[in-house]
Amino acid sequence: MANNLRLSSLIPAGLIVESTAEDEGVIVVSARAEVDRRACPLCGKSSNRIHSRYVRTVADLPCAGRKIQLRLVARRFVCSAPLCRRRIFAERFDDGVVAERSRRTSRLECVVHHLGLALGGRPAASIAKRLMVPVSNDTLLRVVRRRSCVRTDPLSIVGIDDWAFRRNHRYGTIVCDLERRRIVTLLPDREIATVQAWLTDHQEIGIIARDRGGGYGEAAAKALPHAIQVADRWHLMENASSAFLDAVRKSMRSIRAAIGATKVDPDLLTCAEKLQYEGYLRREETNAVIMRLAGEGVSIKEIVRRSGHSRKLVRQVIRGERTDVFRVRQSSLDAQLPLLDELWASGCHNGAELWRRLHAKGFRGSLRVVGEWATRRRRAERASDQQLQKVPSARTIARLMTTARDHLTKSDTVTIAAIETRVPILVEARCLIDRFHSMVRKKIEADLDPWIVDASTSVIASFASGITRDRAAVRAAITEPWSNGQTEGQITKLKLVKRQMYGRGKLDLLQARLIGAA
């Protein structure tokens, strides 16, 4: 059965088509409004007295791969109200058809808005060109800004965190509604006064999830003393692991003495390890100068002035955090380690043959990388408590001490056993960190106070004192279901949108795109 399709059904409702034409690939449709009367925008009285007519040219959605141009015959009416100051007024079409002074129909404006929200300026303009929508990148951004909305929903549970306009230079603050899972606002900085002023205007907030930085906690305490502050659980777990790593770094001298490797035999090192060892010897000279000055009672500021080193480096040396011999970097072999272990267990111990088999599986690394791994593996098989000549990095030792023994090689097992026997403070620290992780995971709030008491006299006492200062927020993190993980996800989305705009991501435009797209 044939369907009768009228041209008037393809244009916005409320218009009558008078004529159509084609001009250089553009379909031109002349139309007028259906109604005969219009209300005066000043006094609101309806009038049907026509003074004159004029033509408004607006763009509409494309059809069959061609642009559509609407020529609307607009009328000027005479206002019949005797006291109205506006004697003549122009015809206003419905907002669903064409907005006042707009050069696009409302439905095309909606498409332009959503293109700008999804893609930004230049990428959206490229897609719009393919869709036969006549719009530039600047126009897209203007539409996004003009149609931006402000959230007015009442807030109860929010997450606050910082994000970088430019890392290590300038930061802003993001506020998320954790119940509705969307961004509420973006603040231009992360200063306490800025966050406090915003929170003061939202007294209805009852729970604030935040990271463990002191700035947001202080702002929330001043603006909303009745609100419950919840420390982010991921940061708690990460801070605990970092505390254990710091304890290992401060104990490196004891660790080297414990495993009988206070001196390194360069003949046992690979080429890459020799380069790291030479750098370690140069660092030791710098460390000795700084430690000598510190032993004489010289202040850190004066040490910086005399040695010419940065304040950060001087503090690291004094704290014993710069004593690693070997530093572990991510290797191209990390993804191939399970296959290498399987080949090694099957009897293939030749580096070149291992590389050929990995290459057949798609490995793109060099033969040298695989050969050095095979050399280290052969030495590990012959390792014993008396033959240990190389001390792993502090990060490696921390990882091995927190890894199940079933997953360690023979060399690693011997190393960790020697450390645990002769450096018991690290075993105590590891047990405390395990207790803390278990307490957070299992939400056992009653274990918090006993843990603080035990940790206060250990090598991770500084971490325990930080937990003590933020005890209420940490307790809430254990008992409350809310956390700041959702806010971190919104920050990832924010970074994606900011990088799409090639440096044009000002705060108002970022907020318009993120909140408008929510």
Care to describe what's here?
This protein is an alpha/beta fold and 518 residues long. Among the domains are: 8-95, no CATH class; 109-146; 157-232 and 483-517, Nucleotidyltransferase, domain 5 (2-Layer Sandwich), CATH 3.30.420.10; 234-245 and 428-479, no CATH class; 265-324. It is built from 21 helices and twelve strands. Strands 1, 2, 5, 6 and 7 form a five-stranded mixed beta sheet that branches. A hairpin with a 4-residue loop joins strand 9 and strand 10. Helix 6 (233-250) runs antiparallel to helix 16 (424-442) and helix 12 packs across helix 13. It is elongated. The chain starts with 14 loop residues before the first strand and ends with a helix. The model is unreliable at 384-389 (pLDDT under 50).
Known CATH architecture of one domain: 2-Layer Sandwich
CATH superfamily of one domain: Ribonuclease H-like superfamily/Ribonuclease H
Helix fraction, binned, reads: 40-55%
Number of helices: 21
Q: Give the radius of gyration.
A: 35 Å
According to CATH, what is the class of one domain? Alpha Beta
Uncertain segments: 384-389
